[in-house]
Design brief:
Helix content: over 70%
Mean pLDDT: 92
Shape: globular
CATH superfamily: Fumarate reductase/succinate dehydrogenase, transmembrane subunit
Largest sheet: none
Oligomer: single chain
CATH class: Mainly Alpha
Number of helices: 8
CATH architecture: Up-down Bundle
Radius of gyration: 18 Å
Length: 209
């Protein structure tokens, strides 16, 4: 009884952290922060200087509390969920839903690897080595074929995992109960996926310019 209750709470927390703060930060990171580069390199660097003006201890504390901590919990419990997943198709009567179920877990693993590398390359190196995240720095990353490919795949996995996760979140929390509501939200989530990844592609191409 205690074990099943603990699992229930962990699953709810896992679902919740995927939307807030992790998903909310992903939306801000793509649709607000990095879109500054679409107006040119200097616009992006003004944003970076603005963020860098915050006291380093405050910025680090916010990142640990609201980004890295939830990410570690979501990732750790996510791997447990992958181990428990019925990848032989728990949604046998819903072909698309079955594929999305499998992709949700696969993209979670890819996203974990990409985010780990991305945090190291663009945040931890700032704190440990004083690396400056300039337009030239990002341009160098995006014009390297290997790293650019990793960005394309990694961002694709992150955006899909989040947008499809909105659909599963609403089912888990009883927000969408009927089949019609669930399929409508699933379609809306896929539209959001296309919009967010399309924006991310435009950002990556702007860093390559």
């Amino acid at each position: 009884m205690a074990g099943s209750r603990r699992q229930f709470i962990l699953r709810r927390l896992h679902s919740l952290t995927g939307i807030f703060p992790i998903g909310a930060y992903l939306v801000v990171h793509i649709l607000l922060e990095n879109t500054f580069v679409l107006a040119g390199g200097e616009s992006f660097e003004r944003l970076v200087r603005g963020i860098g003006a915050l006291p380093r201890q405050v910025l680090l504390g916010v990142e640990i509390l609201f980004i890295w901590g939830p990410l570690l919990f979501h990732s750790a419990y996510g791997f447990i969920r992958v181990g428990q997943a019925e990848l032989d198709n728990p949604l046998r009567e819903d072909y698309l839903g079955a594929w999305l179920y499998t992709l949700q877990r696969l993209t979670g693993v890819i996203a974990f690897l990409f985010i780990g590398w991305h945090v190291w390359a663009t945040r931890l190196q700032v704190y440990f080595y004083g690396t400056e995240i300039t337009f030239a720095f990002m341009h160098g990353m995006m014009t390297d074929p290997l790293r650019f490919t990793f960005f394309l795949v990694g961002v694709l996995a992150c955006v899909f995992h989040f947008t499809n996760g909105i659909w599963t979140f609403c089912i888990t929390w009883g927000i969408t109960v009927g089949q019609r509501a669930q399929r409508t939200l699933r379609a809306a989530s896929l539209v959001l996926f296309v919009f967010m990844y399309g924006t991310a592609l435009a950002i990556m191409m702007a860093f390559r310019a």
